[in-house]
Write a structure and sequence with these properties.
The protein is mostly beta strands and 611 residues long. It folds into three domains: 177 residues, Galactose-binding domain-like (Jelly Rolls, Sandwich); 72 residues, Elongation Factor Tu (Ef-tu), domain 3; 195 residues, no CATH class. The chain contains four helices and 55 strands. Helix 3 crosses helix 4.
Length: 611
Amino acid sequence: MNKAITDGLLLAPAVFANGLDVYSSGDGTAGSDTYTNAINAAFIPADQDFGGALELIKTQSTQKLRYMGQTPLLPGCYLRITAKVKAISGNLPSVRIAGYPALGNGSRVGGLTEFGPSVQLTSYGKVVEVSAIVGSGLRGGVDMVWGASPVYGHFGLDLTGQNGGVVRIDDLVIEDITSIFLLDMLAQVDVRDFGAVGDGVTDDTAAFNAANAAADGRTVLVPKGVFLLNGDVTFDTETLFEGKVQMPATAILQLRHNFDLPNYIDAFETEEIAFRKAFQALLSNADHESLDMGGRKVYVTGPIDMQAATPERTSYATRRIIRNGQFEAAGNGNWDTVTVTSQATYAPTDPRKLTNVTDVANIPIGAHVSGNGVGREIYVRDKNVARQEITLNAPLYDAAGTQTFSFSRFQYMLDFSNFQSLSKFVLSDIEIQCNNVASGVNLAPSGVTFHMRDCFVPRPKDRGITSTGGGCQGMFIDRCQFLSSEDALNVSDRTSIAINCNANDVKIRDNRATRFRHFALVAGQNNIITGNHFFQGDTVANGIRSAGLIIATQHTGSVVHGNYVDNCFIEWTNEGSVDFCTVVGRVHIKQHRCIDSHPTVHLIDFIPAPP
């Protein structure tokens, strides 16, 4: 009856015929009492059912029998312990398989189930088989789930019930039945085999990392369940998610082998959470320069604070790309513009400050500023609550004195504004479906070479791309489409703007924009604006026309070349200067009416020179 070796592990307990000095009446630990010379135990060499057998008289409320040998336990290994027992005389006890979970130093691992199902003996001479399965994972049929902490166990059985009964016990059998739970042909490692519970309460971080360490190229399986991970987890091999993962914002999940959004969507409960965690991993892993969204659409219920998604950093300057996917604003999401009306004082001698601002604590950073003498794209760049001051992104042209200003914080689907600085970041082949409830992208307050290419921004409520500071320095906007939500409105009733930028060296090339109030307001110097088609026409005869492109700086060396300026004009203004009374320049493009009565203009070359 001696089960010998499984994959190099000695599992079989010694047979009773070899002596009872290795069988304990306690837990089986070193120094515990054995059944050698015990008055209630004897070896019976010729039992008719068992051959050799241990005859045992029950004298304790729980009569223990434990093999003192150390049966090794490995993560992912499942053992079945079996005993055959029959009653001989006296009271009829119940029988159950039991064990002692031990650390490497022999101490008990607390909090674990140490016995299997109990079987009541009902008659004399009838052989009853009892068994239990012990293993690391919470799987169907496992009676004693011990996780990854125990290194070995002392196994045997318990007799419970009334004392005085006499039983005979056949040699114990321990078998490796891991193949029942984990087929070698699948080449998978299951996180449950390393102690993962998946109840949404137990922290399974250590089990996940242990599974990764043991995978050695095999696929890691995360089965059905909700797995709480309070710490960072990295998988270096392919990972298959049948269950879901929950993590705090500070914990990072790195899927290094299959790093793309579809796998994060498989791992997390919602697409929105999955995108946040995938973006966090993108900025935390030097091995991946881009996050492929796999063509998936992410439904967004409110502004995604991109910095809050990766709270471990406030600045980032390594090239990273998000590509190949869609974001869609939920119509019932949290998109309400936050508007605060406050009185403040403006002095041209300090041209980027508002002072004595009432209710300054409630004015959001990044809010759009409007009031008498305020340019079209003026934003709150910073504030000092203690001093009741607001810092603006540009001067006001004619607002000296005290007046009431309105501060409106638009809501952006992708909001980078809480980064202190973000450089060399790229959005490529992305569609940002604003659905007339949200704006598109809000840049960080500082950074260089933000790049948006081959993207669509349909129906932004207020703005397509906004820069409230200097995060647009050296920005590239290439081959994008900005599709207005205000097509049905007359020009004079529109309020949305496709692009706003403040810093120098912006390149806006080969884009198309339809029927905004303005296509772009460019407030920095030395820009290149080429090959764009922007049109803002309506059907109102002799109606108001608005500027398509606004160059809002006094001194510029910008190049505007080869654009299709349709039913609008290019305006060079100094509204971002306190010296507004000095007219620097304004260029209108003469409109050309085609036979079909749709007003258009010719392709133009326009290179303004400094005054």
